[in-house]
Amino acid sequence: MTIEIGSKTALMLALCEALRDTYSLAAVTNDIFTKEDGEFLVAHHALPEARIRAVETGGCPHAAIREDISANLQACEDLSSQFALDMVLVESGGDNLAANFSRELADYIVYVIDVAGGDKVPRKGGPGITQADLLVINKTDLAPHVGASLDVMARDAKAMRGRGATVFAQVNARDGVPAIVDHVVAAFKAATATP
């Protein structure tokens, strides 16, 4: 199963830490001209280095998850042929509201937005907000510092997503991470259940 995570390396690390003892994982990161996010995961021992691939997109990382998924698909296939994997976590760089993963690449999509962008972000919509399987509103601790209302964000996320799941989090402090893990595990179990 491929779990796509839009925009946040800290969440990739948290998910690896939470899931690696129970599931066989690999991780793919995307950066324009560097392998920085992959190197971050290696430096923090998210997974063994051989299970982490850093894709240099050479251009907008969002194109590599939507229009031309070949580099990411190849990384996923290479990892899957090397290891018996339960899940591959794929991270996209950037914070473009117009971005979302291709369903040819993603079985489950987690889209992360940042409270520091203000409480207007959920109501701006975009495919990541409206179509992701799970919306994570991260850095809740910053709300008072940027004048953002978490209540407004919750209301607007519900209006934009209907019954789509939303989790408020402070990923670096691991607040909200157990709920995110629960959503990912539930999706994995549903996808791999035998009839």
From TrEMBL:
Any Pfam family: cobW
Keyword Cell division included in the entry's annotation: no
Keyword line: Chaperone, GTP-binding, Nickel insertion, Nucleotide-binding
Keyword presence, Chaperone: yes
Domain CobW/HypB/UreG nucleotide-binding: 8-164
Superkingdom classification of source: Eukaryota
GO BP terms: urea catabolic process
InterPro entries per record: CobW/HypB/UreG_nucleotide-bd, P-loop_NTPase, UreG
Single GO MF descriptor: nickel cation binding
Family: Belongs to the SIMIBI class G3E GTPase family. UreG subfamily.
Descriptive protein name: CobW/HypB/UreG nucleotide-binding domain-containing protein
Native source organism of the sequence: Aphanomyces astaci (Crayfish plague agent)
